[in-house]
Amino acid sequence: MAPTLHYDLTNLGGRRARIEGMNVSGKRLDAEWLVGWCEQTSATLEVLMASFSEKHGYPPGENAVTLATDESHAATDSLIDLTPIPSDLTTLYWVVHEASLPDLSNGYFIHSASTVAEHFQEYGAVRIDDEWPALVFGSDGGGHLFAVTGSGRVWRSTTASWFDEFKMVAPSIQEFLAQIGQVVVRQA
Questions:
Q1: CA–CA separation, 98 vs 167, rounded Å?
Q2: pLDDT higher for 35 or 6?
Q3: What pLDDT digit, counting tens, does each position of 158-183 carry?
Q4: Residue 112's Cα: distance from chain center in Å?
Q5: Structure letter (DSSP) for residue 142
Q6: Are 37 and 99 in contact (CB under 8 A)?
Q7: 7, pLDDT greater than 90
Q8: In Å, how far from its chain's centre is CA 105?
Q9: Kind and range of the H or E element at 9?
Q10: Given a cut of 50, is residue 10 above it in pLDDT?
Q11: Do the bridges between strand 19-20 and strand 85-86 make them parallel or antiparallel, or are there none, so unpaired?
């Protein structure tokens, strides 16, 4: 069953003063679009998981997009207090707590705001060309990291390391999520 959403998404624009600005496209991640992405992805995941064992010969892991809660909102506020974060990441965490998609391609994981804060405290921001600092917010099943910069671009580490090179994979978090959605649809 697709998740039921019950959030007031009208107050995202001015969450906190330490949120960084627009992404490179000049458009912010739209919370309503994100809600639709969650619903569509969750519905398609249900179809995919229903036939997964038959197609692959083994049972799937737990694949889910978990919606934000009051507790995860508090973790987002704590992350904002810790370091400036791109506004699109704040919007993402206002709707999505985390995503665990181990059976999509090589796996996709969007870390919770509290995990991002723990990683930031342990490793700091990552250096990405002229876009430093970048905040790691996800990973794949091979341990590669996904980071977002103040421009809103999403980058993937070339190795399973915080300290090696990163390559751009999407011009925005919205495009990154759209790519994940396409993987779900192709595998379903």
A1: 23
A2: 35
A3: 999 998 899 999 999 999 999 999 99
A4: 8
A5: T
A6: no
A7: no
A8: 16
A9: none
A10: no
A11: parallel
Could you give the 3-state DSSP secondary structure of residue 64?
A: strand
- Beta-bridged to residue 136, according to DSSP, are 147
**Identity of the amino acid at 141:** G
What is the C-alpha to C-alpha distance for residues 103 and 5, in angstroms, rounded to an integer? 24
Specify the pTM. Answer: 0.85
Classified as helix, coil or strand, 59 is coil
| Averaged pLDDT for residues 1-25 | 36
**3-class secondary structure, 157:** strand
166 close to 81: Cβ distance less than 8 angstroms: no
182 contacts: CB under 8 Å, gap ≥ 6: none
Q: Closest Cα to residue 110, out of 68, 52, 152, 71?
A: 68
Crossing angle of helices 31-50/87-95, nearest 10°?
A: 50
What count of Cα atoms within 13 Å lies in the side-chain half-sphere of residue 90? 26
| Distance between CA atoms of residues 183 and 181, nearest Å | 5
